[in-house]
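Example record used in the benchmark description.
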Amino acid sequence: EEEEDMDTNDAEDDDDEEENNNENTQTWQDDHVQMQLWNPSVKVRKASSLPPIIGTEGNHNNRKSQRSGRVVGVIPPSSTGKKTPSELRPGQDKEDKYDPKPRRTIVGTIGNLNGNQQRYLFTPNNKSLPQFLCPPTFRGLMTDDSSTTGNNHQNDKDTTTSVICKAEYKYGSWKSNMRWPPCYNVQPIGGSCDVEGETTALLTEFGVDHGDFQPDVLRDVDEAVRSGRDRKESKQGATAEVCDLGWSPTPEMLKGRRDYRSERIFTIDPTTAKDLDDALHIKPLPDGRVEVGVHIADVSHFVAPDTAVDLEASRRATTVYLVDRTIPMLPRPLCEIACSLNENVERLAFSCVWKMNMDGTMMKGKSSQKGKQKKKDDEVWYGRTVIKSCARLDYATAQNIIEGKIASGEKVEDLDDNLWPQSRRPTGGHTIDDVAGDVRLMHRVAQARRALRFQNGALALNGVKLAFQLGADGEAPELCEPYPIRDSNRLVEEYMLLANYLVAERLISHAGDRAVIRNHNPPLQKGLEDVVDVARESVGFHIDATSSQSLQESLSRMGRECNDELVMQCVTELAMVPMRPAEYLTAGHVEEEEWSHFALNIPYYTHFTSPIRRYADVMVHRLLQATIDGTIDEDDTLRNEAETQSSCEHCNEKRMASKKAQERSDRVFLSLFLLAKPIKNVLGVVLSVGEKTFTIFVPSLGLSTRAFVDEHKDRFEISLQGEDGKRQIMMQRKGGQVVGQGTDHRTSQVCAKVFAKLKVSCYCKEKAPIDVKVLVEGNWDGN
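Model output (structure tokens):
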């Protein structure tokens, strides 16, 4: 998100507004390219760069030993409160039945304790947790119920290895004289390789099994949307039936809103999307610039503070998207009807509208004669609106438009329905050519902005996302392939990023410490050191990781200079590991240097664009409206800074839990796909080597997973060579069979070292919990 500044004098003027007391302290305004690209109006100090990574070449003492430790306590999450007992903060030994100890639900499998048929250990799926000792009264799982054991184990009598279970742990109950922490209420959830059992397990494990919405929540929703419901009564014989035709705003709701119903606004979303929470418009201006509008569903209009639906949305914090289902944050009448920005219907929106240059840079206003205020016409406008989307495009249709496959001068009757389906064509008097022209103009501006943004140090370290096609039963995956990221996806992303940035700027300048922002801290230094060392030792390339900009420049240069695109892909995969997650927080919770977003390389950021599925965005909408109304200090419904920070922390926990649940769902369905259709003899690249495992990246699946040395001992003689930094595993085929094509006798030996290309096969590990199992077949020969 960078571009040439159209008025560099304004950058100098802004710098003059406030004298820097510390000449050695840089601000984001001191960065000329940042001023060109983002035009930040809030003067924020810039954090110093990361310390230089010298590397460990020739000094293996620093890397000789691997860190190790032993779990001695199970700490409750911060959302449970500071008074929650734990091993580090013991509580009362006797539990008060009126005030029971907080508990954690754990998910895993059970097994006998050292062959003891009377005692069992509970092994969590989460490998960061220790094993737990089941209560003495627990006698194992003996059942023939196929609904519990899954299809592959219907005849098993002892199901301990094929059943996923859950148990409870009371925080603070692990005493110093116990080898294992105790668990209670051990119950079966479902069987291995069973979709329902595996899905119930992951929902339970990550705390996102929210269940149905309670009646009081649904009553709140009905009350919020009732006045706008469109109904008609049709009589058939002696009976009358009321048909629900949807929802539209009442005249009362439109008061005080800017009217954008005649504007050519449309949505671009995934083909199967039901909750459309963002729409766009663009129009050329006489002076050569463009006006861009991002229109977001006005969820805060329907969800009043402290109502039942608000409290439930706050508790859930985010919508959870799994392969075969969605666990929504809001009830369907809101997220799919009243709030969804569907085509050809009036909807309430919260909009951010701005002017920018065709090259993607933000417009700098000319200084007026009276001072340095921007012209009113050049200011960003925020406010509540009413819109009427004219078309419901999906990414595939938008991509066809961008590539000129459709709407290139042909008559409407000659349009290919496969390239632009009839149901996605514009309504309300807007033409195919008009909408196609807007999409291409949006793409042109977004493409220019994206190029500049990455030149200025933005990072894109996104992994491959898999897409599944399920069978008629809605369970068995019949197709699995990488989800394509196209220019149409990137188009939407650019404008959403910019809208989020502009809203963050408004909150910081008008809401102060209460502003909800989303920061992204620099990556873990130790992890970056490993990436730098691997790149240097394996391919002789130096990576400068002192800042996001230097890291991006290094990766870009490596992409140009490296002849092996796969190596570049692997380095990018490794660079993702030390990256820390972005988090929500209040501006007053940290110093201003920590507001910045490392990956985007910008001084501040927030989330404004998805309130249907993120509660943090709902908080942002409320704060933004308060800044517009001038009631930021008088509005009793707004939370104070401490309460807002607590809500941010809860949103962080739930967002991470949702992410893990989604990743686990992908892994479950990939495993089920491989159970039916194993993938054999594909390329795998070694990313790291340990003593008992090595990590393999399978590019065709975008999958990184551990391969276990013990699982290869039936076919290979295995020896470990070298130390941590240059460790490699030598695998000699038993009997001397050749494991790769060619006549060289060395092909009977496989060397698993960093960036080694191997031929691997991918299977399903059927033992609970199911997972992907990768086995080495030999050296990669290109076939």
